[in-house]
Amino acid sequence: MWLELVLLFSFAIYLFYIWATVNNDFFVKRGIAYKKPVFMFGNMWELVLRRKSIIDIVVDLYSEHDGQVYGFFDQRQPVLLIRDPELLKQITVKDFDHFVNHRTDFGDENDKNNLFGASLFMMKDSRWKDMRSTLSPAFTGSKMRQMFQLMNKVANDATAYLKQQQKESASQGLEIDVKNFVTRYSNDIIASTAFGLEVNSFENNNNEFYLMGKKVTTFTFIQNLKFFLYVHIGKLMKLLGIGLFDKKSTEYFMHLVLDAMKYRKENHIIRPDMINMLMEARGMLKSDNLKSHNREWSDIDIVGQCFLFFFAGFETAASLICLLAHEVMENPDVQEKLLQEIQDVDRNLNGKALTYDAILNMRYMDMVVSETLRKWSAAPVMDRVCTDDITYELKTGQKLEIKKGDALWIPAIGIHRDPQYYENPNKFDPERFSEENKDNIKPFTYLPFGLGPRNCIGR
Q: Is 306 annotated as ligand-binding?
């Protein structure tokens, strides 16, 4: 009996080992230089153990090799790191039809407990194309101009809060937790422009929308574990009915969006926000802007897009503003020039309300934001999966075969930190994006929002 158990256990370990290492010879067979993996963790063990950030991991991988392509392992998954701008152009633009999709499957698109799986980011093939064409009109200049009044109200609320805090702390000076402040600011912007809510998280610190947002964007050990398991055993997670986010959170967003749409239709309410645009997409409102297709969008499809807008914007926008503030603090010359531009704009308004055009004309502000996005990309890396076999000839004369199902990484932060494209890349220098210098930036080496037709719609 004991012998049988030992043999059974040994066989199970053997099968597990085969499963864990089955892809280890992937790059050897293809003749591609690669980084040797650590068992089960691949080349991501320092990220999993939180010893390095994703930015450090990508920069290190990018810097280890000088060829057009480098291989590494994301846990068990072999991934092609595309280092060459010309090859990136070929893959993301010219041959986009071969690389339409992201590689990770986060669940059943019809599962009401998995809004992320139903979002634009996770949609594939024709579903993605139809939803992208549906959403694109919401992000045009004219729509942004209409939404500006909503954003400006949030800005005024934030300003009023700071003035009140300053007044109450006049004798001691004012100390602000910048991350907390800008997270609440981002939260209120998204609540207003995407969900039609006016929450004022500065006055109402514990409003439900803010607390729910913190919950779904705070990656606890359990949340990280769920992501890890979805990447590796996604089919089993779906079979077991384990959602990426807890049921209470997803139900909250479902009711929030659908109830708002119902109320607006019944009361003939028009508001320049994302819910209004999604109502147009469903035919609940008349619109001349939306492209026609035969797709019927379900409740989950509709709510999934609002959820993505929230999930993608809540933390990234706040982090960007924090990093920008840090760089401005570290570079007083930049701070002085930026302050001067702000004061000039304020003076030119001559007491009138801030306008959308006034912000668009803030050239130095744009340079500072662009340089922050270069040095601290919100998406340090983008991924694609090949949907149809294709072959490229590399500069070495070697053939690069990319087969259906192969995964690719686009190392944005690695390229942004490469001295051959950006002199002294670790220096914060907004002048790189001045009118005189911006044309010197090599095409396909500045990609904070991705490349090609599947670039970030929120850019």
A: no
Q: How confident is the model at residue 444 (pLDDT cuts 50, 70, 90)?
A: very high
Structure tokens at 161: 């809060």
Nearest partner of 411 among 35, 61, 27, 45, judged by Cα: 61
Under a CB-based contact definition with an 8 Å cutoff, are residues 240 and 108 in contact? no
Q: Are the CB atoms for 444 and 89 separated by under 8 Å?
A: yes
Pairing of strands 77-82, 407-410: parallel
CA dihedral 314→221→20→105, nearest 10 degrees, is -30
For 206, residues 6+ apart whose C-beta sits below 8 A from its C-beta are none
Cα dist. 25→31, 62, 209, 361 in Å?
10, 21, 48, 54
Contacts of 352 (CB under 8 A, 6+ apart): none
Cross-strand pairs, 38: 42
| Sole residue written with tokens 């939180």 | 50
**Res. 106 pLDDT band, cuts 50 70 90:** low
* CA-based torsion, 194, 197, 198, 199: positive or negative: negative
- 261 in Cβ contact with 275 (< 8 Å): yes
SS percent in the chain: helix, strand, coil, step 5: 55, 5, 35
Give the model confidence (pLDDT) of 288-318 as tens digits: 555 555 677 788 888 888 888 887 777 888 8
